[in-house]
Amino acid sequence: QVQLVESGGGLVQAGGSLRLSCAASGRTFSPYGMGWFRQAPGKEREFVAAMNWRGSSTYYSDSVKGRFTISRDNAMNTVYLQMNSLKPEDTAVYYCAARFRWSGRFNYQSRDDYDYWGQGTQVTVSS
Q1: Three-state DSSP class for 72?
Q2: For the purposes of burial, counting CB atoms within 10 Å of the CB of 29, is it exposed (0-12), middle (13-18) or buried (19 or more)?
Q3: 118 Cβ contact partners less than 8 Å away, ≥ 6 residues apart
Q4: CA distance to 27, 67, 85, 86, 113, per residue, from 89 (Å)
Q5: Tens digit of each residue's pLDDT (9 = 90 or more) over 64-118
C-alpha cells in the first residue's frame, strides 16, 4: 500500500502563491507518474498537472499553464505543486495521485489512470 499526504493548502489573496506538497510512504515508491487534481464545490474532480516520475515530461491543464509548476524530489518521495498568480477560481480541494501501472498508455488527465490518492488539502483564494 501507498499513502499520500498532501499539505500546504490555506487561504491566500488573489495574485498570491502557495506550494503544495505530497509526501508518499509505504511500499517501495517507484510510480510511473504523479498527478494533481482539484475539486471545487459542486463540480467534478479535474486534472491540474502531472509528470512522469523518472523522466522530465510535465503536463498542465490550460487553466493553470504558465502559473502552476509540478516538480518532484525523488529522494524524499515528494511531489510539489507551486501555484503562482492564484485566482479565486483556483479555490478547491487539491488532491495528489500516483500511478504505479507501467503497462498501457498513461492518460494523465484521467482519474481512472491513477492507483492511489491522497486525502486532499483545501486551497481558498479570496478576491
Answers
A1: strand
A2: middle
A3: 4, 5, 6, 22, 95, 96, 97
A4: 36, 13, 11, 8, 25
A5: 999 999 999 988 899 999 999 999 999 999 999 999 988 888 899 999 999 999 9
